[in-house]
Amino acid sequence: QVQLVESGGGLVQPGGSLRLSCVASGFTFSSYAMSWHRQAPGKERDLVARVTRGGGGTNYADSVKGRFTISRDNAKNTVYLQMNSLKPEDTAAYYCKADSGFNGLVYWGQGTQVTVSS
User: What is the pLDDT of the chain when averaged over all its residues?
Assistant: First the structure.
């Protein structure tokens, strides 16, 4: 049974930091590229950051470059999103995604809410 379980969301003041985690099970984690996406109410789900299978390659949305860092630990089947200098516009539900890169096989987590407000 495939599972992606996100955690680490919450309420934080502008300028603060949060670290999101996504623990995977039920598939070969190291064979999948991993990414974080976010969706604010009434908006589309957008890519935030992506990391390659081995962790050596990353890319980021322009809006988070220099503030967010994606990383993964294949020994722990976990992908992380370190979020610094948070802004109110970062408020959204954050989802992790596993992408096999083959035949459109992807898995999604259930999401974790991040709210940036004073």
Answer: 97
